[in-house]
Each structure stands twice: as structure tokens, then as C-alpha cells.
Write a structure and sequence with these properties.
By secondary structure, the protein is mainly α. The protein is built from 13 helices and no strands. Helix 11 runs antiparallel to helix 12.
Length: about 260
């Protein structure tokens, strides 16, 4: 129990989940799956995520700055095993979140933009590990779809933490606009994510599964607004939902090409 509590405090499980975004980017653009590259990417991304969470603790309570820097240094060091750009990319991600945490103290809206941009950076972290350097508009559309879902989930987190954020005098959407409007905006972002993923796929199975996933998501949103399910259950649902969709997109869109 002590170890579990420690992991929760460090937000280890959230960092493990967040590291799935660059892994998805890697899977979607690599020509050859290499376990060594995947291991370096995941380890570097995981430590980078932990450093960002520690940075958030620093902005909230002025603690954990040294922990954040140590974790970021470890992330960069591991990334350098692949190449220079791979080693310095966590610095770019970290810088974005410095601006994000600063903006939350000042005004509403920039935090949403920076959170969305943070998701884009996470996705491209995996793309550069694929050695495919694919920066086409189609790649950006896919990255945007992933990041819109990432940002939609962020707004749900704001709704859950609304009282805590008010105590910390954080400037964010939910504390200004309230729960219902915030959830509407979150739903719009989720819908946009499904739409971009749908546009970006040519597989008939996925074109069937994506609308089904969206309609299921819609049922969960309405149930949560009517207080028939807890927000924690809703968060678990959409995270699993998008994780399964990403696995499906890779399996149907990219895996056949890699195996051939």
C-alpha cells in the first residue's frame, strides 16, 4: 500500500498512460519496429512526463523543482542514446509546460492552447524516433486528433479539480465558465478528435468502429451530466476508448505495411 501511494503521488500511472501518445506516433510512421528504439522512446517519454508532473507540483506548492530537473535530465540522457534531436526534444516538451503552468496563474484560454500544443509535441516525439521525419499535413491532422482528445480529457480534469483550483487561484475554464459549459467544450473537442481520426482513415472496419465509439462516448457524456455515473468512471472510459482506437488504427492502417 505504501508503494502504491508513492506511485500515485508521483503520478506514475498517468505518466505511463501519457507515454502512449509518442509510442502511437512511433508505431504510425516507423518502417521497421525496433524494440531498442521503442524502449528508449518509452523510457525517455515516461521520465519526461514525470518531470512535467513534478513541475506542476512546484508551481502549486514550490516543492519538487529539483526532482523535476533530475527527471528531465534523465529523460534527455536516455533520448541521447538514439540521437541529438531525440535527446533535446524533452526540453522542448518541458518548456511548453513551463508556459502552460505559468499561464494558469494569469488568464483563461492560453492553458488550453498550450495543452493542445503539448499533445502535438508528444505525438511528434514518437514520429522523430521512427526515423521517418514525416511532417506532412496528414501527419499533423492525425496528431491534432490525438491531441484534441488529450485536451478534451484535460477539461474533464479541470471540472473534477474545480474546487482545488479555486483555492489555488488558478485561472482555468471550469472555474470561470462552470461545469456544464466546460463539459460541452470538452465534448466538442472529443467529437473533433473522432472526426479527424475518421477523416484520416481509409479502412472500412475503422470507419464503422469510429462512429460506434463516438456514440458510446456520447452516452457516457450524457450519463455523467445527469449524474448517473461518477466522473472517475467517465475518465477511465474515454482513456480506454481512445487507447483501443489507437491500437485499432495501427493494426488496420500500418501493421500490414510493416509486415509486408
Amino acid at each position: 500500500m505504501v508503494l502504491l501511494s508513492f506511485f500515485i503521488k508521483l503520478r506514475v500511472f498517468e505518466a505511463l498512460f501519457l507515454s502512449g501518445i509518442p509510442v502511437f506516433g512511433y508505431f504510425m510512421f516507423t518502417e521497421t519496429l525496433l524494440f531498442s528504439d521503442l524502449l528508449i522512446l518509452y523510457a525517455s517519454s515516461f521520465l519526461c512526463a514525470l518531470s512535467v508532473f513534478a513541475l506542476g507540483d512546484f508551481f502549486s506548492s514550490k516543492n519538487y523543482l529539483i526532482r523535476s530537473v533530475v527527471l528531465l535530465t534523465a529523460s534527455c540522457t536516455i533520448g541521447l542514446q538514439k540521437g541529438f534531436i531525440h535527446g533535446i526534444f524533452p526540453l522542448l516538451i518541458f518548456a511548453n509546460w513551463i508556459f502552460y503552468y505559468t499561464s494558469r496563474k494569469l488568464m483563461v484560454l492560453p492553458d488550453l492552447i498550450l495543452h493542445f500544443f503539448g499533445g502535438i509535441l508528444q505525438f511528434y516525439f514518437g514520429v522523430i524516433f521512427s526515423d521517418n521525419s514525416n511532417f506532412s499535413f496528414q501527419t499533423f491532422i492525425l496528431a491534432s486528433g490525438v491531441s484534441l482528445a488529450f485536451t478534451g480529457g484535460y477539461i474533464v480534469d479541470l471540472v473534477q479539480d474545480i474546487d482545488e483550483d479555486k483555492d489555488l487561484r488558478q485561472k482555468n475554464l471550469s472555474s470561470v465558465l462552470g461545469t456544464k459549459i466546460s463539459m460541452f467544450i470538452s465534448s466538442a473537442l472529443f467529437f473533433s478528435a473522432y472526426l479527424l481520426m475518421y477523416i484520416n482513415t481509409s479502412n472500412n472496419i475503422l470507419k464503422f468502429l469510429l462512429p460506434v465509439a463516438f456514440l458510446t462516448h456520447l452516452v457516457f457524456i450524457l450519463s455523467m451530466l445527469r449524474k448517473k455515473i461518477a466522473i472517475q468512471l467517465y475518465r477511465m472510459f474515454y482513456r480506454i476508448n481512445f487507447a483501443v482506437l489507437c491500437i485499432g488504427i495501427f493494426a488496420f492502417e500500418r501493421l500490414p505495411d510493416i509486415l509486408n
